[in-house]
TrEMBL record:
Region called Disordered, residue ranges: 36-59
Lineage, opening ranks: Bacteria, Pseudomonadati, Acidobacteriota, Vicinamibacteria, Vicinamibacterales
A GO molecular-function descriptor: zinc ion binding
Protein name (record): Zinc-binding protein
Transmembrane segments annotated in the record for this chain: none
Positions with biased composition (Acidic residues): 41-59
Single GO BP term: regulation of DNA-templated transcription
Gene3D superfamilies: Erythroid Transcription Factor GATA-1, subunit A
Pfam families, A to Z: YacG
């Protein structure tokens, strides 16, 4: 059984389902990062804000 994060190292019983504390933290930080960061650098299209949509102008 391989680490669910790196999928290269065997799972360590102490850190399962990860191979190490490092992978456990990396996975956790990655999860939290995706949860808290709403807008990413690659995403420049804001949702529900289309200037060409008359129904979107709610002013
Ligand atoms: Zn790993």
């Amino acid at each position: 059984m391989l680490c669910v994060y790196c999928r290269q190292q065997p799972v360590d019983p102490r850190w399962q389902p990860f191979c190490s504390e490092r992978c456990q933290w990396l996975d956790l930080s990655h999860w939290l990062d995706g949860d808290y960061r709403v807008e990413g650098p690659a995403d420049d299209t804001p949702p529900d804000m289309d200037p060409d949509d008359p129904e979107a102008t709610d002013l």
